[in-house]
Design a protein that fits this description.
By secondary structure, this protein is an all-alpha fold. About 80% of the residues lie in helices and about 0% in strands. The mean pLDDT is about 85. It comes from marine sediment metagenome.
Length: about 110
């Protein structure tokens, strides 16, 4: 909704502020991302077909998708442990750090 605001962070934080259990807030947040991910994939595939930029060998795409899926799953497991373990402040530090670095890069370029 607002550029630079974490969709998962916003939905989980709002859920917790509304008194929703941590596990439910986590699950809702990431179930909510499924339509956005599928939509983005559809748009990218449509663009690739229209511009005829599909690779002649699909193996790099399959490998990239597999690596992204594995890393994404590992990230979700870690993030779930952070949320359920009352260590959500770790995510806040991460967001502040990435946000600060992004601002510095944006200003410098």
């Amino acid at each position: 909704i607002i550029p630079g605001i974490s969709r998962s962070g916003a939905t989980i934080s709002t859920g917790l502020l509304r008194g929703i259990k941590k596990e439910l807030a986590f699950r809702y947040s990431f179930l909510l991302s499924i339509p956005a991910i599928i939509g983005a994939l559809g748009l990218q595939l449509r663009k690739a077909f229209l511009e005829q930029t599909l690779p002649s060998h699909p193996l790099p795409w399959i490998g990239g998708a597999l690596v992204a899926a594995i890393i994404g799953y590992i990230s979700l497991v870690i993030f779930r442990k952070i949320i359920l373990g009352k260590k959500l402040h770790i995510f806040a530090y991460y967001c502040w750090t990435i946000g600060t670095i992004s601002l510095i890069i944006r200003i410098a370029t």
